[in-house]
UniProtKB/TrEMBL annotation:
Domain Histidine kinase, chain residue ranges per copy: 20-238
Organism whose genome encodes this protein: Halalkalibacter hemicellulosilyticusJCM 9152
Record-given protein name: histidine kinase
Domain of life from the UniProt record: Bacteria
Residues of the full protein shown: 362 to 604 of 604
Coiled coil regions in record: none
Subcellular location field: Cell membrane
Length: 243
């Protein structure tokens, strides 16, 4: 036995990544193929079954499109010349707007949003589109894993030179050993369940890369069975900072 060198580790990760991508693409393709075969074998003529089977192939196509989109984005972030489009943003207002977009979907699941924002204005230098993508992923996870009637809490506070944002839910939680792994590409706590709710398993990996590109940190704290909090810190920007 010898220690795995850095190069070997990179090669191992690369192989694992390619294997994961292949698997994630093959699953919807196999499903689509079998449904298309069934349609060809007669299901198409059945007015009850045909729309259902066509719907399955639509959903699987959508899943592949989401996956390829996420993969392309990760490969862009990985490239050396990746750049954020930074501007100074007032975070209380920005978060209010973000939460508002979710309120309709939340009320369908009877989920309540609690926001505890800072009393004073808080500024950060962010890439609006990218940060929105990060928060959309985390808030939709919080809602996805919340029980019916649950509460999602969003807090923003100033902590030294950082702003700290947290999104908490009262969902199933994440076992301790998985709390750092959820930020790895394709890691899911429960593969079958996560897939059935439509995720690609890349959302938090992308979120982590984007938050790090902003000079911030992201991590999870969770009590299994009780709920999860995702924390994000970002450098604070003074109001007059040039964007
Ligand atoms: P997915 O597309 O599967 O949601 P993510 O990268 O967003 O991928 O999340 C990775 C995994 O982390 C999820 O599959 C799920 O197992 C776990 N996870 C993320 N957020 C939560 C949460 N709020 N509560 C419980 N589990 C979560």
């Amino acid at each position: 036995l010898h220690d795995v060198t850095e190069e070997e580790k990179i090669e191992q990760d690369r192989r694992e990544f390619v294997a994961n991508v292949s698997h994630e693409l093959r699953t919807p393709l196999t499903t689509m193929k079998s449904y298309l075969e069934a349609l060809e074998d007669g299901a198409l003529a059945d007015p009850e079954i045909a729309p259902r089977f066509l719907n399955v192939t639509q959903n699987e196509t959508d899943r592949m499109i989401r996956l390829v989109k996420d993969l392309l984005q990760l490969s862009k972030i990985d490239s050396d010349d990746y750049q954020l489009n930074l501007e100074t943003v007032e975070m209380n207002r920005y978060l209010d707007e973000t939460i508002e977009r979710f309120e309709m979907i939340a009320s369908d699941k009877n989920i309540d949003f609690h926001r505890k924002l800072n009393k004073k204005s808080i500024y950060a230098k962010i890439d609006r589109d990218k940060m929105t993508q990060v928060l959309d992923n985390i808030i939709s996870n919080a809602m996805k894993y919340s029980p019916e009637g649950g509460t999602v809490k969003i807090r923003l506070l100033l902590q030294g030179k950082n702003i700290r944002l947290s999104i908490s839910d009262q969902g199933m939680g994440i076992p301790r050993e998985s709390q750092t792994k959820i930020f790895e590409r394709f890691y899911r706590v429960d593969k079958a369940r996560a897939r059935s709710v439509g995720g690609t398993g890349l959302g938090l990996a992308i979120a982590k890369e984007l938050i790090q590109a902003h000079g911030g940190h992201i991590w999870a704290q969770s009590e299994y069975g009780k709920g999860t909090t995702i924390f994000i810190t970002l450098p604070y920007a003074s109001k007059g900072a040039k964007s």
